[in-house]
Amino acid sequence: MSRVSTFSIAAAAVLAVASLAFSQVHDLVPVVSKPVSRTADLPGEFLPFLSVSLHAKVPGYVDRILVDRGSKVDAGQLLVELSAPEMAARIAEAQSKIQAADYDLLQAEAQLAGLQSTYDRLKKAAETPGAIAGNEILQAEKQVEAARALVRSRQQASRTAEAVVKTEREMQSYLRITAPFDGVVTERLVHPGALVGPAADPVLLVIQQISQLRLVVAVPEEYVGGIVEGTKLAFQVPAYPERTYSGTLARISHTLDKGTRTMAVELDVVNRDGSLAPGMYPSVKWPIRRSRPALFVPKTSVVTTSERTFVVRNQDGRAQWVDVRKGATEGDLIEVLGELKAGEMVVRIATDEIREGMAIRTQAK
């Protein structure tokens, strides 16, 4: 056999293989449109519903601490007593000033009464012509006015002294530190004998309300469509994996964190049995809602290479690569986001060997 004949036979064989590849039968399936209804597990963090660090408003020494870490307290309950002897001395001094002001006021009122009586008699006598000189009546009238002004001054001094005593007594009441709300003492940071006050500013106690908790969840941007106030959401905590709790979506930040692209929301959780605690990290069942149905194709229809992710669409009998992004999975189907429409046909089992423009031959039915 000649070389030309051998070459012709080899070329014919290559063309036959290529023709077989180009005419390979592909199974096509439609792009399916269906509503997305699922949940995603999002991490959250428990915070106390109320939390406060108690400080001393006035300087003094810690006399007694009536609670300790873990103590349950009621609103208004006495927690800490301070002592400040100099404050009692200031109150006694202010009270003595009240007594002095009251004495001065009594003297001024007595003086006013005497001058008023003299003025009244002169005025009565002046009804007889020539009995009293007009200048005497004028002088008596001015003396009465001056006495009235002195009485008003003494009254103001007495009120000022009383106000000082009231202020000192109010300051003295700050020596008794009470609970602002029902809660639990989570930190005790001072002991009897410690000097406290605005200058030192140490935290005495930390009280948190844990009968109700705030559950903070960072919701990714693509899931914010599921944020609806009043929604009941289920969650679990690692400490009690067999239990399922629930909370009510109560507060929405309405802004995205620039770093994480998440929106913070808060759930109100009633902690009836005290099994939950601030600092726990629960897993929240977050509902995924979309404004329109999603598009799904078989998982085998999506091809992922180092350069792109795509499906192979049948475009008038020719292969067309359509770039997509993967979404949620549902059984053997996967959500795809791209330039696709419901009902379009794609290759069920696609590979990057199906080149763009290649003829697609389907199984005759």
Account of the 3D structure:
The protein is α+β, with helices and mostly antiparallel strands. The chain folds into four domains: 92 residues, Efflux pump adaptor protein, beta barrel domain (Elongation Factor Tu (Ef-tu), domain 3), CATH 2.40.30; 62 residues, Beta Barrel (OB fold (Dihydrolipoamide Acetyltransferase, E2P)); 89 residues; 73 residues, conserved putative lor/sdh protein from methanococcus maripaludis s2 fold. Helices cover 28% and strands 36% of the residues. The chain has three helices and 20 strands. The chain has a six-stranded antiparallel sheet, with no helix packed on it. Strands 3-10-13-12-11-14 form a six-stranded antiparallel β-barrel. A hairpin with a 5-residue loop joins β12 and β13. α2 packs antiparallel against α3. The two termini are 45 Å apart. 17% of the residues are buried. About 4% of the residues have low confidence.
